[in-house]
From TrEMBL:
Domain of life: Eukaryota
Species, as recorded: Nesidiocoris tenuis
Organism lineage: Eukaryota, Metazoa, Ecdysozoa, Arthropoda, Hexapoda
Name of this chain's protein: Transmembrane protein 135 N-terminal domain-containing protein
Amino acid sequence: MVAMSRQVLRRALDDYPCSYLVHPDEPICSRACFKLALSCWKGSAKYFLLMYAAQYAIKYKTLTLEDVPSILKSYCRSVLLGIWCPCAITGTICLWKNVTGRFDKEVVCYVAGLVGGCGVYLDNAKRRPIVSYTISALAMEALIRRLYGKINRPFKTETITFMIMNGILMYKMRTTELASFSRDIWFFRPPKIRRSNKIDLNADDRIGGTLNKACPHSGSCRNDIIKGVSKYILGTTIFTATRILILNPKLRRNPIKFLKTLFEWDNMRLTTFFGWYVGAYKMLSCFLCRIGERDRPEYAIAAGFIAGLSYGVNRNITVLGSLILYVARIYGREVQEKYQLPRIHFMELSMIISFAVLINSRVLDHKNCPRGFEFMLKTVTQDRFTALFDQIIRILEEEKRSEQINAT
């Protein structure tokens, strides 16, 4: 980590104009912001197309033609968010440099990120939870990676933590309304407890139908498991395919090579994780309902715990951070309801603060900056925005080395 005091950072950067640090390809700030906005418009259109394709591929059966205008409008607002964040950071740093004649650590590492994070208000209100959870999870990953810089990454501890937290989450989502707000985001939602736990002994079991109709789903267990697993596998496969084509457009001309790349193990980890997670939860839940002859909320703890073993296939600190944040937010809501605490824009504030944390991590601790955030910046800005960080990081590291030489 590049640990820098305010005075050291100012001494290292003040001698350089913003055209050298912030926008080296264009000497004039206004033109540089315009070019960056144009690049962000193109990059955001591709990036959010990936996000929307993955989201709506999972629930395509519930979509109608009447939903298309609202989806397109929401997509345009998401693109505006992608344009605002990088341009606001660049504009804030340039404005402060031109007004005060210096680069301050607070502005470069914190204020610029806070201003960029305010772009969450440009996005559709229904989409803000997704954006907030994504950015918050990346910020959590940055903090965990910084901790891992001091200790070894424990595989067993991560997996067990995911299993325990997932069991708690599944139980909470089945037993409390506070955990099932439609604006929240978690890729899987267990069904609610059935109001009627009557057993239908006349159910047809020839096609895999369950004799115990207390299962939380309708129809046969086998069909429900196959339908649920295939839906998530399809959605994640489309997401992975779109990501591969965005990162390597040349594969469009070679379908065979594209398919080989798509079905490589590294690219299929996410799909395997989703399929294992959903399939394991549904199978164990149905098994426990058959054995117990009724649906109990406690079954969600065991099913969620076993489904959490899928984390070993795709060890992703972002997913683990998202799960921890989700469970913490549920308990936070319960405390808020119990003590009648005032409601605030928690989603938006968490997005703004988390975005500032990520910008700070990218500048001062770039080795532990999440790859997901790096991919996001590279895709949205078409790799133009990295020049800002690369120049600042290089100068700060040179200043750090010179200080160490002088100290010795």
